[in-house]
Amino acid sequence: MNLTEKTTSFIAIKGSSDREITLDFTLNKKREKNCPIVIFCHGYKGFKDWGCWNLVANKFSETEFNFLKFNFSHNGVTATNLTEFSDLEAFGNNNYCKELFDLEKVIDWVCNQNEFSDYIDRDNIYLIGHSRGGGIVSLATARDNRIAKTITWASVSNLINRMPKNSEEWKEDGVVYQLNGRTKQNMPLFYQFYENTMANKEILDVSKVAKRINTPFCIIHGREDAVVKEENAEELDSFISTSTLILIEGAGHTFGSSHPFLGDELPKQLNQVVEESLLFLKD
To answer: Which tens digits make up the pLDDT trace of 9-66?
Structure first.
């Protein structure tokens, strides 16, 4: 099977601490060369194959866009088990700086020679981040001039204040646990997360860093988001001079998606999010 016959290709590259970043690349359906590429970043307790993200990739590829989504190297899933948190040690050793590093490596891969090089327009690299991934793409956009446009879906506006508050107990025990409501797993966060975040506050402070963004930026958020409140979208919008804010009536944190998702069409609200995103990127 040659490249132009493939729908999606699966690839692994080196990320933080030499752990694998697993990614998939969905080629635009027309197999046209020199097309824009969207890089999608999942959120906390997420992964690239969660819920509707594969349907989202297909939706983008039906237009002139290539679509790449990936697993952060320490998100807790592995190349042999892409939809379960089977490596909680890695999950506990994750932090924001590692995710920024991973995203940079993915962008490097896009910009360097690879099997899709002829199909990628490197002047039109776009980022989309969901939830915590929205905070990561905001920071990356401010520091990386290779990014032409960015979109956040249900994004946080502050990474630092979303850490567990009981830092003394965390330090003493070396770990805190957060329940994953879907899997019922107790997800560990080792104290290194706190130490790394405090040591890198200047580069992780979205309120300061995002003010340096000067490229087109779109913030999409659900008005009924109980996980990341609507105020986060309004706050992020206030940081960025080039931003457009779109609020989706009645939408929650995942815009009608869930995991596992057994349907073959996007939920109505998530479809609206994708349509708004496509309009923004094509403008």
So the answer is: 899 999 999 999 999 999 999 999 999 999 999 999 999 999 999 999 999 999 989 9
Determine the average pLDDT of the residues in 175-184: 96
Residue 1 clears pLDDT 90, i.e. is over it: no
pLDDT at position 251, please? 98
DSSP the chain: --GGG-SEEEEEEE-GGG-EEEEEEE--TT--SSEEEEEEE--TT--TTSTTHHHHHHHHHTTT-EEEEE--TTSS-BTTBTTS---HHHHHT--HHHHHHHHHHHHHHHHS--TTGGGEEEEEEEEEEETHHHHHHHHHHHH-TTEEEEEEES--S-SGGGS-S-HHHHHHHSEEEEE-TTT--EEEEETHHHHHHHHTHHHH-HHHHGGG--S-EEEEEETT-SSS-HHHHHHHHHH-TTEEEEEETT--TTTT--SS---SS--HHHHHHHHHHHHHHH-
Question: Domain coordinates of the chain in residue numbers?
Answer: 3-159+205-282
> Regarding the domain with residue range 3-159+205-282, which homologous superfamily does it belong to in the CATH classification?
Alpha/Beta hydrolase fold, catalytic domain (3.40.50.1820)
61-71 tens-digit pLDDT = 999 899 999 99
